[in-house]
Amino acid sequence: MSGQPGPHANPIRDSTNRIKLGVFATNGSGAAFTFHPDRFVPTWDANVRLAQLAETLGFEAFVSAAHWKSFGGDGHYSGDLMETFTWAGAVAAVTRRIGIVSTVHVTVNHPVFVAKAEATVDLVSNGRAGMNLVLGWYPPDMELFGYKVKEHSDRFELAEEWIEIFDRLWAGRKSFDYSGKNYQLKAAFSQPHGVQTRPVLLNAGRSPRGRAFAAKHCDIAFLSAHNPAPSALRQQVDDIRAEARENYGRDIQIWMSAYVVLRDTQAEAEAYAHDYIVTQGDDAAVQNIIHHNAIDTKSMPPEAAARLAYNLKAGFAGYPLVGDADRIAGLFASLSAAGVDGFLLTWLDYEGGLARFGRDILPRLEAAGLRAPAPPE
Length: 377
Fold this sequence. Notes:
Elements lengths: L10 H4 L5 E5 L19 H13 L4 E3 L20 H10 L5 E7 L5 H15 L3 E6 L4 H6 L7 H20 L4 E4 L4 E5 L11 E4 L4 H10 L2 E3 L7 H19 L4 E10 L3 H14 L3 H10 L9 H14 L3 E5 L1 H13 L4 E5 L3 H11 L1 H6 L10
Parallel strand pairs: 1-2, 1-11, 2-3, 3-4, 4-7, 7-8, 8-9, 9-10, 9-11
Antiparallel strand pairs: 5-6
Helix pairs in contact: 2-13, 3-4, 4-6, 6-7, 7-8, 8-12
């Protein structure tokens, strides 16, 4: 029996697999900051191959990243990022089952535009569309549009208005006026309408205000591991679920982002990771990210600052799935036992990495009862 839902259901929301899986950031150069020759080059042909392979393997989600300026100056590889709604509509046209998620900066994408753009993806995909809502933290992105990065509380004030407008446009069949602090709309309306009652919504807010926003509005909240030990994650997971259930009467999924380095032995995996992260890592781009995130590494212990830079270079601070197949499958089992529902995965070499994941990891997850076999084509 397949863990995939039936027709017209969104697999991200409705899959019955205990561990749900997605591929992240192939619309750009991935999540690693490195000059290693295996770094992914985001051609459209490669995106088609990866989306179709992920679908064949039974993955639930194919998710874009979003930013507008590179992290390393004009011409830097991190700036090669396809626009997310255009990308999602194109991916929808070459797939049949996998959920497709556009990452959206709510601060620079007006909800009237987004309602029409997301409905278009939902129609092309026959109900497989979703959005990863981000609030905009990178000053060069905001300045490109003539904005300044808002104060933390002001970002969420705008986001609350944004989601209210979007939901009314998506579900409504009558035009409405809207008067808020951030938006003034006259006779707001959007058509055509999408297939789903509401697209799947993801959010990775890490502050108390961010967690509350995800708990109130989103289907999936992303967990950032304060301690990588799976046993330490249980309390974080329980707290997020409790906030959604007790404050808003909602049940939400908890996902994590993770980078995969799979080799025949633990030693080989660690050596490969050290090569691309340390030996050939892009230190300048990562320091630029840290600077613009207003992180004062000078006030940190040196080992903490070094660990932060390492984690960013490795996979934009995703969870490390590094080792041989048995170890990685064991980590998935432990994280699932801690209550994590799904993972957005990245690799340095996406095509080779995803294929090997399908050969070596998925059978182990199926044998452990964490995933059902992929449905036949």
